[in-house]
Structures are given as structure tokens and as C-alpha cells.
Amino acid sequence: MDKDKITAMWEEDGDLMRLNKFFGYVYQDENLKKRIKEKALAKISVPTSEMEEISQKIQAEQDTLNEKSEKIQLNKLKPLSLLKSINRKKGKSVLKMFSAAAVVVFAVYLGSILSNGTVPFTVGLGGSPKAASEQARNDVSYDTAGSADGFMSSVNSERSAIMAKEEFSPEDAPAPQEPTTFSQEEQGITEQQEKGSIEQKIIYTLEATLRVENVGQTVDLIEDKITSLGGYISESRKTDQDTEINAYMTVRIPVEHFENFKGDLSQYGIVSNQYLFTDDVSRQYFDVETRLRSWEAQEKRYLEILEKAATVEDILKIEDSLANVRREMESLKGQLKYWDNRVDYSEIRMNIYPQKSNLSVSDPWQPVSLESTFLAAKNAVIKSVSFIWNGANYIIVFVGYAIPVLFLLALGWLGYRTFRKSKSDG
Amino acid sequence: MKEISFDEIYEELFPAVYRFVCLRIPTPEVEDVTAEIMAKIWRSISSFEGRSTLKYWALRIAANYVADFYRSRKEISIIPLTEELQNAHSDRDYGDELSTVLSVSNTLAQLTEPQVAVIQLRLIEGFSSSETASILGTTQQAVDSLLYRAKKSFRTVYQAEMAGGEC
Q: Which phi and psi (to 5°) does residue B92 adopt?
């Protein structure tokens, strides 16, 4: 099998071992792992957007600080001196880690007091990553005696708990399997937006592997279906080698048809793998929209000031600020447009393979269905015909090469003969 | 389906996800991006149907996220792979395998990004050709030929590295 051949190639001259060594070193830091884990937990429990901003700012500052102090230009140093400097830095970096953590905790504490003025909130926040994992642990028992249903419902309840924190209106119960209801809800929600609930923006992506009888035909069928549903093909690749045809397609269809199309996939063939990804960008979308609105307000104010401006200097200053504001707005609008496109058009990626029962001539003869036998026979005939035809072509070409040479040879031989003759005559 | 806690998911998937992310995302953001991906994985765990390995499914999410990351950024700053790899290494304990690690690092930096991706996914993470193809959004044949070409290039460049090397 090709897989083993190629992997064996890598093993032969030790390159695989070298690669493994390299990748083994890519991650070694336990502290890093813990840090990231905490961040991930924090994201899961969804802190308020204020705290997010603060902690993001802190992290950004942290990272630039860490980067500056720990960067070593490997290109310029020789390995020996590099080792020396690495050993020296080891002790320092541990200290740095501690002080960094202390600073973060302190800043978070300070920030929460400043913004909320209540201590219980800090306690809640400081504990929230832990609380979230505690909750996860409680909801999902380690006991293997628990049923799969228990797991699902606990995850869902955690989800709906999170949803509740974000003040979703009751109709927005999470149900990623039913985008059709959402699109109706979305319209209703836009009106509710004023009241402070967040509009749902969910991106659906599906990935599927199909095993079909006729790859080319299936591709055409799908293309037609997509177009008829008002979607478009984003990418379509077909590889057609003698023994293997496969296709890879990425399509986008309006989100309201997503569910149906997903359900209809089995009509094309066997769906051997299927993955559904949902990406909920509602919060980010809402945040960007809010920012956009504040920039718009800013723009208005600048315009008002511009009216009252007297000196040219003032006018120029204001116009400069205005340009800046507009640039920000453009960038944000672009972001919203991007999300809109991805929300409104779901993406479906398909790998299309032929069903394995396609007999080719190289396969050993097995008792199979008559259809496959006929196909194989057809292939065999085609193969031998083409072989013969190729052979004939080669012969013709060869003859073509040979003719001039033979002609010259013939001339030469004739000449020789006549020369001989004239000699013997004379 | 047996129950899984976040801790278990994290333990199992963190290495592969981190390896994937740190070679593709600028260093200052690697942590946030990895955390975001792990969070996303946890949030979508209920849509995992168990028809493939968890690792494959998780890397799919990671690959999607990384692709989005670059798509929604106006400035496409192409960070040379060397810088990423070197930054990832700046405070590790190498022992006597330093020269190998450095050589491999410099060699990989001279291969194309798709080649490195295929190397990482096929040889290190152990995915099959078709799984790798799905993760990267290409065909199986492309993956196989990439791996083959990568092997040739790796050999050539690595030997040049060793010859030119650290003496």
C-alpha cells in the first residue's frame, strides 16, 4: 500500500526519527500547557466582554514582555554558547512566570473592583475557571456506569446555562440541527435587538465523505442541486486517473436549505463519514456591531464639530480624525460582511469516492456482480485495443525513422554494387 | 459513548493541537489561539459522532480555525517558518540533540508550507492520506505526491544543512 511505502521511505535514512525528535521538542513546557488550559476554561465559561477585554490586554502585554526577554536569535549564535545562555535563562523564566501570574491576578482583582465595586464578583471571577471545571466534573461523572444520554443532557444543560447568562430570549434554545427555524427566529429577533438580547449568528459547516457509483455523474447532480437551491460552488476538484477517480467539492448554500441538503446526501450514495461543525459568532458579531455603532456616533460628533470649526488648522485636524474613524468603520463593516456571508451561506465540503466494487483489469478475478464483470471486460477490451493501437503507432513512427536511413543505405549499397561491377567489367 | 471530562479532552488533544498551531500562528497569539481552539472543541463535543478518531476531528476544527484566522485578517503577515520554530524553542532543554533539532528546524523552514503540513499530519500525527486530505482541504493524491516531494526535498536540504552546518 502506498501509505506504507512512503512512510518506509522516511524511515530508511533516519529522517522519520529526526522529525520525531524535532516535534518532541516543539512542546515541553508544562506551565504553558496549564496557562492555555486556564484560558480555554475562561473562554468556555464566557466572562463579560469587559473582563475579556481587560484580560486580553493583560495577556497581550504579557506576551510582548515575555517575547522580548526570551527571544534568542538562533541564526547568529553558535550552538555551544546557545546552550550556555539557555541554561542561564531557565531559572529566570520560572520566576518570571510567577510574577506574571501574580500581576495578572492582582490586575484582575483591581479591574473588577474598579468596574463593579463589589468583592463577591472578584471571588466569582477568580473562581470561575475553576468553578466551570468543577461543574463540568460534577455534571459528567467519571463513573462509567452513566449513560450516554446523561452526558448529552449535562452538556446541553451547561450550554443552556451559558446561554442564560448571555440573556438569550427563550425562543433561541440551542438546536444546531434546525437552521430553518432559526432564520425565521432571526427576523423576529432583529426587532428584539433594541431590548438588549443578542441576535443569533451561527455558521454551519458540514463535511462529508460520499461513496458513489459514478463520481462524475454525482458531481454534476450535486452541482445542479446546489444551483437550484440558490447556492454556488466554491471549489471543485476532480482527479481522474486510470484506476481512481475522486472529486472534492466545496459548496455554499443558503442556510435555510442546509438541513434539507444534509439530509438528502444519502440519495447520492453511501455517506461514510459526516462531520457537522457549528460556529456561534453571535457574541463577536454583537461586539463588532456595537463598536461600529460607537464609531458612527463618533463620526456624527466630528461632523458637528466640523460645522463649527473656524480655522483651517482645526478643519484639517478634524478631517484627519474623521478619516481615521471612517477607516475603522470600514474595517468593522468588512468584518460584519464576512460573517454575514458565512452565516447566510453554509459551507458543505464533500469528498467523493467511487464505491470499492469498481473492478479494474489489474484486480484479480473475483466472483462479482455481472455488471462489474461487464465493466471489467469492457475495460479489458479498451485496454488491449489501445495497446494495439499504440503499438501500431510506434511501428509507424519507427518505420518513419528508419526510411531515410534505409534509403541512404540502399543508395550506398547500389553505389557499391555498381562500383564493384564497373571494376570487374573494366 | 462514554463520558469525557474537559480535563481528559484537554490532556489527550493538547499536544497535537499545540503542535499544529505553533507552527502556523505568530508567536504572540499562539496561546490565545490554542485556548480558543480547545474551547471550541469542548463546546462542539456533542456533535462528535465517534465515526473517526477524536484527534482527527479536533484537528479539523483547528485547521478551520487557523484558516479563518488568516482569512479574516486584512494584513496577511507571512511569518517565516524559521522564526516561528526558533521562537518556540528559545527556552527549552535540548541536551545533546540540539544539532539534530536545529538542523531539522532549518530544513523544515526551507520546505513549502503544504509540505510541512503533510509531514506533520501524516508522519507525526499519524493520519491516513484521506484524513490528511480532509484536514487540509485537498485530494488524497495531492497529499501523497506532496509527501513524496517533501521527502526528496527534505533529504536534499538536510544534507546541505549537515554539510554547511555547525562547524
A: -105, 160
In a domain, B127, yes or no: yes
- How many Å apart are CA A416 and CA A412, to the nearest integer? 6
Q: Which of B55, B79, B103 is the last residue of a domain?
A: B79
Is B134 part of a structural domain of the chain? Answer: yes
Spell out which residues of chain B touch residue A15, defining contact as CB-CB under 8 Å: 151, 154-155, 158
A356-403: per-residue pLDDT in tens? 654 444 445 555 566 677 777 888 888 888 889 999 999 999 888 888
Pairing mode of beta strands A345-354, A202-212: parallel
CB contact under 8 A, B36 and A40: yes
Nearest to A241 by CA among B6, B142, B51, B136: B142
> How far is Cα B127 from Cα B118, in angstroms, rounded to an integer?
10
Asked if B43 lies within 8 A of A44 by C-beta distance, the reply is yes
For residues A306 and A276, is the Cβ–Cβ distance under 8 A?
no
Q: Which residues of chain B have pLDDT under 50?
A: 1, 75-82, 84, 91, 165-167
| Shared-domain flag, residues B99 and B72 | no
Query: Counting one residue from A and one from B, how many pairs have CB atoms under 8 Å apart?
Result: 218
User: Cβ contacts of residue A262 below 8 Å, gap of 6+?
Assistant: A206, A276, A348
- At A92 the pLDDT is 64
Max intra-chain CA distance, chain B? 56
In percent, the amount of chain A with pLDDT more than 90 equals: 14
Residue B112's domain is classified under what CATH number? 1.10.10.10
**B32, A248: Cβ pair inside 8 Å?**
no
Residue with cell 483651517: A312
Residue with cell 515575555: A66
Measure the CA–CA gap between A416 and A384, rounded to whole angstroms: 45
Give the predicted TM-score (pTM) of the model: 0.39
A347 phi/psi in degrees, rounded to 5: -110, 135
Q: How far is CA A310 from the centre of its chain?
A: 53
Nearest chain B alpha carbon to A272: B51
**Predicted local distance difference test score (pLDDT) of residue A346:** 92
A271 CA: distance to closest CA in chain B (Å): 11
Quickly tell me which residue has 459548496 as its cell.
A251
> Are B67 and B141 part of one and the same domain?
no
Q: Is residue B13 part of a domain?
A: yes
Q: Which three cell numbers stand for residue A149?
A: 444520554
CB contact under 8 A, B90 and A152: no
DSSP string, A322-377: HHHHHHHHHHHHHHHHHHHHHHHEEEEEEEEEE-TT---TTSPP----HHHHHHHH
ipTM entry: 0.74
Q: Give every CB contact of residue A107 below 8 A, 6+ residues apart in sequence.
A: A54, A58
pLDDT in tens, A74-110: 344 444 444 444 445 555 667 777 776 676 667 656 6
- Amino acid sitting at position B156: T
All cell numbers assigned to A138: 460534577
Q: How is residue B4 written as a grid cell?
A: 469525557
List the 314-373 stretch of A: residues with Cβ below 8 A of B: 331, 334-335, 338, 349, 351
Distance from CA of A320 to the nearest CA of B (A): 22
